[in-house]
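I am writing to request your help with a piece of structural work I have in hand. I am sending you one protein, given as its amino acid sequence and as whole-number tokens for its backbone shapes. Kindly check, if you would, that the fold set down in the tokens agrees with what the sequence suggests. You will find the record immediately after this paragraph:
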Amino acid sequence: MQNKIQVKSVEKRENALIFCAENTELCVEELKARSHVLVDSDNLSFLYILENETSFIYVSIPHTCWEELKHAMQNDEKMFVRIQDVEIELEQMKEELDYLIENIEGNANYGEKLVNEVERVFL
């Protein structure tokens, strides 16, 4: 089973940011927000965790979408991922990212490329 969904583009809606994800074979209706974000240093991405009854699914938000992400965070906009025309709110996204960004700043454990990109965009 595929456990990673790649965000391909971003759409802006009034007071919301929509991450448009690639098509997947997953039963999207069963997915729920886990309210947790990880880092993929190798791919310069944030990974928002969704879950169903049997597994975790990672929504990969690449650095190419971070400028829009920063804008949404600054404006307290809700964030969603759209998969197969189903939108799932990425609950606690801003709080999770605020915490991660604070921890990534100057922290070589995340890798130089990721630290540099996070600092360039968010700090």
Q: What stands out?
A: The chain has three helices and seven strands. The longest helix spans residues 93-104.
